[in-house]
Amino acid sequence: MRLEKCWFCSSTIYPGHGIQFVRNDAKIFRFCRSKCHKNFKMKRNPRKVKWTKAYRKLHGKELNKDATFELERRRNRPERYDRNVVQNTIKALKRIEEIRLKREEKFWENRMKVKKDKRADLEELKQNIHLVKAPVALQEDPSLALPKKMEKVKVKVEMREAGETRAMEE
Amino acid sequence: MIQIQTYLDVADNSEARKLMCIRILGTGNQKYAATGNIIIAVVKEAIPNMFLKRSEVVRAVVACTRKGVKRRNRMFLGFDDNAAVIVNQEGNPKGTRIFCPVARELREYNFARIVSLAPEVL
């Protein structure tokens, strides 16, 4: 018994699940469920379909290049059975799984952290906009003020104006 | 799931190209043929100027189906098209080569010769 990976979404296919499709060139495509099978029949490219692992790894949303993936790589060379090797492998399996999960979490945290920093910057800009543009100017022309929704704002801070206002304040 | 009027590709190098199923052999009034069933088919398309001609009635074994086979380990294995291998009365293939991957179920139906000729048995 071997736990295969779905060709489309890369999830594990447990026995009794899914469909296998054989193309005329004898390549086997395994699918974990009909969702993946139907997407395949629609000729969708998994690298372009957002919820698949292929997309996520390609677009840097998930850990992709790591030594912990080497364990699961398919080897076509059969190993001679050795009891010690088997026992060591079983121990290693658990440990490597732990390490891989930790690394994936770390990767996710790092990815989210970048966005958090940006949020903090935007927050700071909003609070200290009076340093950049004079409050009087903001009152006279409300279009200069930042809109309520922070996320959609791209504020162009002109360095020349900042220099001028500072000179005026001095 | 091959039934009457189903078109099948011919998977071997006999002179026919397409067959149409006209009868499914077996016990009872079988509605569908799966991999390993023998069908009676009529040649709908053939290579010109050869021994086997269009609208000749032949026997064929269903080699692979789109619907596929369901195995004991609850695995479904479907193929790219519906294909058959032309056989004679004894069940020996008429051609000498087979061009598509076949299902292992053919061995259980005693078509060992077809299995041995196939490029891939899955």
Automatic annotation (TrEMBL), chain A:
Principal location: nucleus
Subcellular location: Nucleus
All residue ranges annotated as the TRASH domain in the record: 6-44
SMART domains: TRASH
Pfam families: Ribosomal_L24e
Keywords, in A-Z order: Nucleus, Ribosome biogenesis
Family: Belongs to the eukaryotic ribosomal protein eL24 family.
Name the UniProt record assigns to this protein: TRASH domain-containing protein
Species the sequence originates in: Ceratopteris richardii
Automatic annotation (TrEMBL), chain B:
Source organism, top-level taxon: Eukaryota
CDD domains: Ribosomal_uL14
A single MF term (Gene Ontology): structural constituent of ribosome
A family per Pfam: Ribosomal_L14
GO cellular-component term (any): cytosolic large ribosomal subunit
GO terms classed as biological process: translation
Keyword Ribosomal protein: yes
Ranges annotated as spanning the membrane: none
InterPro entries the record matches: Ribosomal_uL14, Ribosomal_uL14_bac-type, Ribosomal_uL14_sf
Record's keyword terms, sorted: Ribonucleoprotein, Ribosomal protein, RNA-binding, rRNA-binding
Record's keyword annotation contains Transferase: no
Entry-linked HAMAP family: Ribosomal_uL14
Family label: Belongs to the universal ribosomal protein uL14 family.
NCBIfam families listed in its UniProt record: rplN_bact
Entry protein name: 50S ribosomal protein L14, chloroplastic
